[in-house]
Design goal:
heterodimer; A: alpha+beta; Rieske Iron-sulfur Protein; seven-stranded antiparallel sheet; four-stranded antiparallel sheet; B: alpha+beta; three-stranded antiparallel sheet; 1 helix; monooxygenase activity (chain A); Rieske_2Fe-2S_sf (chain A); methyltransferase activity (chain A); oxidoreductase (chain A)
Chain lengths: 344, 50
């Protein structure tokens, strides 16, 4: 049993973070070295020299054209991880090779496969097409979380916490008081949680970005594909407005809130967040407001979950939690993650 | 609503604190505790006479 699901795709970075320069990020306990080759392709390989483990991202290690030169003894690797030069001798040992990670750049993210590379099927990577769709404008970020990834999954699967933790930003009384519907697709491996508020207070996050005043219809439809990708399809509309029979929804504002939940270590997580909207396209003032507001909300979660991690780390074994109706989706997600980790 | 072949559906019964669980085999039952609810759903087909 593993503390995280192996043989899975994880978001390691935004594509914009990877340039023709050495970049390291730990994913599921594995330090991974990235760079973008001169042809624009993202490489991913262990961030450890095979010789004496020196991190290849650590200066004076350096990138020379499309080869990384270890800053300790000069072992040199090509973009495929093959060692092409060692110091003082002509023969490069046959085993001097870094096994590359399967890597895919898609929907603004850089995905890496952690596990047996033979099992990496890029078609299994869940999609978030809005993040690169010209019909949407997106703001995004990543916050380090000093808590286990499961706490962020719990947090995002139960949005009733918005009422209490995010009041004044995205929380209103109706979020916690409106019943949810939960669906679990066992074959697709997806948890859905829906909360449709048909007559709700409009929180500042949406009032200021959409211009809607007064009461609103606010729909939250969560789609979580364990272990990494979480999507919240948020629909904001005047009270009484519903999508038309042909599927169009011209009176509503749509916001796609995307999180990538990537374990760094057993007790820390990369919290990637993105907010894509289909209104006020290109409006920099709205973008700045949504970026600032969403980052504030994410940081409110980070503070709370960091505290929770310490509580859990210091509590005796066997603490008995209590779950109620609002936890139905979170419990489903926990079970799926447990199964992916090898627990029955 | 998803249209897969093996979908569990849980509805919060309007005006109550109860959860209505529907298994992919069409068995259904109401619960007050989501933990018990998941034990029953995941126990399929035990006790799932629809």
């Amino acid at each position: 049993m593993s503390w995280f699901p192996r043989d899975q795709w994880y978001v390691a970075a935004y594509g914009s973070e990877i340039t023709h320069d050495l970049f390291s990020r730990t994913v599921c306990g594995e330090p991974v070295l990235f760079w973008r080759t001169r042809d624009g392709v993202v490489t991913a390989m262990p961030d450890r020299c095979v010789h004496r483990r020196f991190p290849l991202s650590q200066p004076p290690s350096r990138l020379v054209d499309d080869q990384v030169v270890c800053g300790y003894h000069g072992f040199t690797y090509d973009a495929g991880g093959k060692c092409v030069a060692v110091p003082g001798q002509a023969r490069v040992p046959r085993t001097a090779r870094l096994l590359p990670y399967p890597v895919v750049e898609q929907d603004s993210f850089v995905w890496v496969f952690i596990g047996d590379p033979a099992k990496a099927d890029a078609a299994r990577i869940p999609r978030a097409p809005w993040l690169v769709d010209p019909g949407y404008t997106t703001v995004s970020g990543m916050e380090p979380l000093n808590a286990r990834y499961g706490l962020l999954v719990d947090n995002l699967l139960d949005l009733s916490h918005e009422t209490y933790l995010h009041g004044g930003y995205i929380g209103t009384p109706e979020v916690a008081s409106t019943p949810i519907t939960t669906e679990v697709d066992e074959d697709a491996g997806i948890v859905f949680v829906s909360r449709h508020m048909d007559d709700a207070e409009c929180p500042p996050f949406y009032a200021k970005s959409t211009g809607l005043q007064g009461r609103i219809a606010r729909w939250q439809d969560i789609e979580y594909t364990p272990p990494c990708l979480y999507k919240l399809h948020s629909r904001i509309a005047p009270v009484g407005s519903v999508p038309r029979a042909d599927g169009t929804d011209p009176d509503a504002f749509h916001v796609e809130v995307v999180y990538a939940i990537t374990p760094e270590t057993e007790t820390s997580t990369h919290d990637f967040w993105a907010v894509a909207r289909d209104f006020a396209l290109g409006d920099e003032e709205v973008s700045a407001f949504l970026a600032d507001s969403n980052r504030t909300v994410v940081l409110q979660d980070v503070v709370a979950l960091n505290v929770l991690e310490q509580v859990i780390a210091n509590e005796p074994e066997g603490y008995q939690e209590l779950s109620i109706n609002i936890d139905t989706g979170g419990l489903a997600a926990r079970r799926m993650l447990g199964r992916l980790c090898g627990r029955s | 609503m998803t249209a897969g072949n093996r979908v569990f559906r849980i509805h919060w019964v309007p005006g109550t604190d109860r959860l209505h669980a529907v298994c992919h085999c069409a068995a259904e039952r109401e619960f007050e505790d989501p933990v018990e609810l998941w034990e029953w759903l995941l126990g399929h087909p035990v006790g799932h006479t629809s």
